[in-house]
Write a structure and sequence with these properties.
The protein contains 7 helices and 10 strands. It is an alpha+beta fold and 314 residues long. The strands form 3 sheets. Strands 1, 3, 5, 8, 9 and 10 form a 6-stranded mixed sheet that branches. Strand 9 and strand 10 form a beta hairpin.
């Protein structure tokens, strides 16, 4: 009989959902039971239950959101014409004019990013961004992270920052919208590059790991208490580390709040990037946190569940 159809009264492994008596369980699932599996240990505040899927949008945000909708289209048009002028598609310009147009373009792009973040934040607060579900196609983590990493290589080179990527062994997959992962990870890399000094270092690392998601209670596996060393790689951790100024422990939790900026942060920021990243990660059933000390750099971590491997049970 096909094991995937199940048998009434037959015990199944809670990891791979294959009958205990199956040879596949003994040869396949056991390969994951390794003492060398890395365990992800999020801080207590990051493990708290996320806020309700639908939050109220503060009344004071309504005028900003309304303005953001109105700004989006004319900003895109202005940036388009600025790009045409700066690249001399509408006629020759001198170096000074090109410099001024470049500064206009940079300011316009910052404003457009603010508009987009405001609109996205309100969508997340109103529950209009659907959470991850079983219908979402699995994403190849290494492939997506490498593409995002490469998109910031030029910015790192321009600042003479040592920029390093360490992808994981194997081919871990997570059920996440690739665009949402791109938005979140890009925000972390951009922040790392911004706060890392010239000749500093930024490292992006992908690590398959074990994530203990059970409640703190006694649970049993096949009428026996689960052994603490029977850990499987059921999650993927993505770390973005930098050699910047670091973040004091008292700010580790509140920097993921809306419109929160550290006292020494650049006034050019909006305090929305990490708040949006947190909501996007939580919408996919994951966690995000930071480990840092003043003067010792920072490490931001995304933790996402792996998609269960489909064993051949024929």
């Amino acid at each position: 009989m096909d094991a995937s159809q199940g048998t009434p009264g037959l015990l199944e492994c809670p990891v791979c959902h294959i009958p205990v008596s199956s040879e596949v369980l003994n040869t396949g699932c056991q390969n994951h039971l390794s003492l060398e599996v890395v365990e992800a240990k999020p801080p207590a505040w990051a493990r708290q239950e996320p806020a309700a899927a639908q939050e109220s949008v503060e009344p004071q945000l309504f005028p900003l959101v309304s303005a953001a909708h109105e700004f989006k289209t004319p900003l895109a048009v202005m940036l388009g014409y600025t790009d045409l002028l700066r690249h001399e598609h509408l006629g020759t310009i001198n170096d000074k004019q090109k410099q001024v147009l470049g500064e206009i373009e940079q300011s316009g792009e910052r404003l457009l990013k603010l508009v987009q973040n405001l609109l996205l934040l309100c969508e997340l607060k109103a529950g209009k961004t659907a959470p991850a579900g079983p219908d979402l196609d699995p994403t190849q983590v290494n492939e997506e992270v490498e593409a995002i990493f490469d998109s910031w290589a030029a910015a790192a080179e321009q600042k003479s920052i040592a920029y390093e990527l360490n992808i994981s062994k194997g081919n871990p997959r997570v059920r996440v919208d690739p665009l949402k992962l791109q938005h979140t990870l890009s925000n972390l890399i951009e922040n790392a590059l911004k706060f890392t000094p010239v000749n500093g270092k930024v490292v992006v690392t992908v690590t398959p790991c074990f994530w203990e998601r059970r409640k703190a209670q006694s649970e049993f596996l096949f009428n026996m208490e689960r052994k603490v060393d029977r850990k499987i790689e059921n999650a993927v951790r993505i770390d973005v580390s930098d050699s910047g100024p670091g973040i004091a422990p008292e700010h580790h939790e509140n920097i993921f709040g809306d419109f929160v900026q550290l006292p020494a942060a650049s006034s050019r920021g909006t305090g929305l990037g990490l708040a949006i990243a947190r909501r996007l990660v939580e919408a996919h059933g994951g966690l995000i946190w930071v480990e840092s000390e003043r003067g010792k750099g920072s490490k931001f971590t995304l933790l996402l569940s792996q998609v269960r491997k489909e064993w051949n049970t024929q």
